[in-house]
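In the design runs reported in the main text, the only information available to the sequence generator was the tokenized backbone. The following block is the verbatim input for one such run; it is reproduced so that readers can re-run the procedure and compare outputs position by position.
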């Protein structure tokens, strides 16, 4: 550590500090023309694959990193067991896979907006019924909305993420440093190492 500190001091101490505050783009509250979101776009793919993607533009969520509300919702949407969206669609032979969530990249989550997407890989038969599939997805979300948050489920996700964090494999050092540098721009000092992975606070209103 002493050697690393010496290198950092030598290399970075000559960079001038211009004294400017960190830029904020929070005033740009509506970056998308959201009325245009209420449309169905058909895209012809290069390879033979059928996929239905539903995308929402939400207010910025990165301030709630200790709660991770989008992670909670994506956990439920992506569930594959009994009573799940995918379970129903597979029984009808309409879908092969389903993914829901926020990629937590700078494009999908920042100080201006957050994006939440649900993507369903369809069978040939499912492609004929994509309206019904979209309806099922919205029904499921409406059910979650009516039921409200469930602390037991949130705590289950919290435990699983904690286990994965504690027993994770060692990553490439360069990638790890890059990840930490990004975290230093987003999280409180005490959460630099854990803020992008762990759930800390259960706040149902969020």
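Verbatim output:
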């Amino acid at each position: 550590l002493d050697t690393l500190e010496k290198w950092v001091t030598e290399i970075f101490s000559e960079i001038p500090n211009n004294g400017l505050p960190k830029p904020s783009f929070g005033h740009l509250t509506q970056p998308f023309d959201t009325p245009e979101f209420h449309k169905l776009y058909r895209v012809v793919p290069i390879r033979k694959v059928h996929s239905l993607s539903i995308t929402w533009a939400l207010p910025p969520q990165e301030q709630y990193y200790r709660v991770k509300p989008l992670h909670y919702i994506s956990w439920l949407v992506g569930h594959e067991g009994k009573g799940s969206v995918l379970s129903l669609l597979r029984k009808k032979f309409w879908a092969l896979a389903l993914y829901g969530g926020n990629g937590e990249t700078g494009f999908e989550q920042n100080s201006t907006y957050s994006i939440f997407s649900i993507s369903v890989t369809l069978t040939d038969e499912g492609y004929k019924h994509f309206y019904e599939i979209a309806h099922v997805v919205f029904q499921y979300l409406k059910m979650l909305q009516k039921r409200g948050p469930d602390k037991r489920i949130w705590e289950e996700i919290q435990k699983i993420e904690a286990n994965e964090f504690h027993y994770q494999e060692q990553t490439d050092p360069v990638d790890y440093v890059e990840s930490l540098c990004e975290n230093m721009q987003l999280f409180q000092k005490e959460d630099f190492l854990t803020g992008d992975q762990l759930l800390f606070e259960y706040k149902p209103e969020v």
